[in-house]
Write a structure and sequence with these properties.
Blueprint: H1 3-19, E1 29-34, E2 37-40, E3 56-58, E4 64-66, H2 74-83, E5 89-92, H3 96-102, H4 118-123, E6 129-130, H5 138-148, E7 153-156, E8 160-165, H6 168-187, H7 198-207
Helix pairs in contact: 2-5, 3-6
Bound molecules: zinc ion.
């Protein structure tokens, strides 16, 4: 895919995410690998109003090659790419329901959400909670790196989800599935719930091996 097309796709996805209220203000960031580096939404940018020509382009040491200054959360994306060679795109949001789940006191830190639906198992599968560090703290990048080898999706405590995919569309689908599942999980609080059984989860994983 040409870099021009990729830039347009990042902006189109940003607009779609913002207009549907999946992130707010100038929160959230989107990145994708290109031929000679990677593209990231700039610092302080509103995902609804991105300019393809001003996206930050970085090298694999995280240095700016061209465009506006990158998001302060650039190191989260870099850690994901460095640990996941097959990942082509990363989406990080402050989506309301996922953030709400990330602040619950009694969640399982190894497996934050239960397998409520087949699509959650297919697109997320397993979701660890990354311990809280202040935005911009490099310890957060190292914590993300620690999970990235085994997980394409993770939830940052008191912050939001980070999800990688084999394409921009795959990363977007996965982070949206996560947000929808977090909303279901909250809707079901206090109710008796029938999750998928371990056998049903294993069957889905056989049919749809993780990308
Ligand atoms: Zn963030």
């Amino acid at each position: 895919m040409s870099e021009t097309l990729l830039r347009d796709q990042i902006c189109e996805l940003g607009r779609s995410i913002f207009e549907r209220g999946l992130t707010h203000g100038s929160t959230g960031n989107i990145s994708a690998r290109c031929e000679d580096g990677w593209l990231l939404t700039p610092t302080g940018s509103n995902l609804g109003k991105l300019d393809p020509a001003r996206l930050s382009k970085l090298d694999w040491q995280g240095r700016l090659i061209s465009g506006d200054q990158p998001s302060k959360e650039n190191f989260l994306h870099l850690a994901m790419y460095q640990e996941r060679e097959r990942s082509r795109a990363v989406v990080h949001l402050h989506s309301t329901h996922s953030v709400a789940v990330s602040v619950l006191d009694d969640i399982d830190h190894a497996e934050v959400l239960p397998p409520l639906t087949a699509y959650y198992v297919m697109r997320i599968g397993s979701l660890p909670l990354v311990p809280y560090y202040a935005p911009g703290d490099l310890q957060l990048a190292e914590a993300v790196r620690g999970y990235a080898g085994k997980h394409h999706a993770m939830l940052l405590a008191n912050h939001g989800p980070v999800v990688a995919g084999t394409s921009l569309a795959a990363a977007a689908d996965a982070v949206e599935e996560l947000e929808a599942t977090a909303q279901l999980f909250l809707l079901l609080q206090g109710r008796r719930v029938r999750t998928l059984t371990p056998e049903q989860v294993a069957d889905i994983r056989r049919r749809y091996p993780a990308a």
